[in-house]
Amino acid sequence: MRHATLFALLASTACATTTATGPAPGHAPRPFTADEIRDATPAGTTWTYEMRQLRQPPVKQVTKVVRSDDVGATFEVVTYNEGGEAMGGTKTSTATWAELESHATFPAAHTKIYETEVETRAGTFDALRYEVAEPGDVVRIKNFYFAKTRPGAPVLYEQTDDGQVMFRMELVKEGE
After folding, report:
1. pTM
2. What is the reported pLDDT for 11?
3. DSSP readout, the chain?
């Protein structure tokens, strides 16, 4: 479940728009700015994701914005097992908008960006797909799908190792 923990914050915070922002040196353009994240993340915003890790039962994760101001936001995250029972209680995290923007920082040399359409259980979205290849003994590809017209978290994330899907996070519902 280490992916679930890592992506709880990413899922609750990443945001996308129709244009990418300028890249930091050596990095691919980001799909969003700190201001766009702030504007798209008012208190009360809620996302539900299903996360699947290889050889593990799926879990659902509900993230709610409980505070949002000019500086940053506070998130509450609850993870549920297949039977709908909460696992481990509510986790709370706080981050600045600049910190949240930095979550979409990828090395330019290993990142390709595509315009595409992606279908999730929450809907079909025009998206920017960031394909990030990690160098190493295993061919690891991470695909982040940022909806172009829906500011918010990535609507889909998938990691493959040597062509095998190892982890998948899909937006299944927005709102309560």
Report:
1. 0.86
2. 42
3. -HHHHHHHHHHHH----SSPBPPPTTBPPBS--HHHHHHT--TT-EEEEEEEETTS--EEEEEEEEEE-SSEEEEEEEEE-TTS-EEEEEEEEEEEHHHHHHTT--BGGGEEEEEEEEEETTEEEEEEEEEEEEPSSS-EEEEEEEESSS-SS-SEEEEEETTEEEEEEEEEEE--
